[in-house]
Design a protein that fits this description.
Blueprint (H helix, E strand, L loop, with lengths): L8 E5 L2 H11 L3 E3 L8 E6 L2 E8 H10 L16 E6 L2 H10 L5 E5 L4 E7 L5 E6 L4
Parallel strand pairs: 1-4, 5-8
Antiparallel strand pairs: 2-3, 3-4, 6-7, 7-8
């Protein structure tokens, strides 16, 4: 059963619009089509891939429990999942956008492989890593 790619990551939130704006405006993803589901939410895309699904906690829980599907708890942090990561281009532009939006981030440089990593948190406390391989 070989896997072919990561499909998406679901973010549960009490602030649908704030979470949507973080991924769409701060990280430059785009809000795209979403099928009619039994709970409110958004799909945000990188290119043509709807990689972040955003759902409202209570209605998603109600919907999922009716189907017999367990829902994660509201534990501090993200449990055993530490972060989600994306590739990006132009680290200076990304840092300028984050700074303009008041989003704090940390930078880790790995010069031996030409990698700059940016670490930040979404509005729900999920750690996001952006990996940029800027040309030298």
């Amino acid at each position: 059963m070989p896997l072919t790619q990561l499909e998406h990551y679901l973010v549960l939130t009490d602030d649908l619009e704030g979470t949507r704006d973080f991924y769409a405006l701060a990280l430059g993803m785009r809000v795209g089509p979403r099928p009619p589901l039994g709970f409110p939410g958004y799909w945000v895309y990188v290119g043509e891939i709807p990689c972040i699904h955003i759902a409202e906690w209570r209605s998603y829980r109600t919907y999922s429990e009716a189907l017999g599907i367990d829902v994660s708890t509201r534990a501090p942090g993200t449990g055993p999942v530490d972060h989600i990561a994306f590739n990006g281009v132009d680290s200076k532009d990304i840092m300028a956008t984050l700074t303009a939006r008041g989003i704090k981030f940390q930078v880790n440089e790995i010069p031996t492989i030409g990698l700059r990593q940016l670490f930040l948190n979404d509005p729900n406390g999920i750690k996001v890593e952006i990996n940029v391989r800027d040309p030298t």
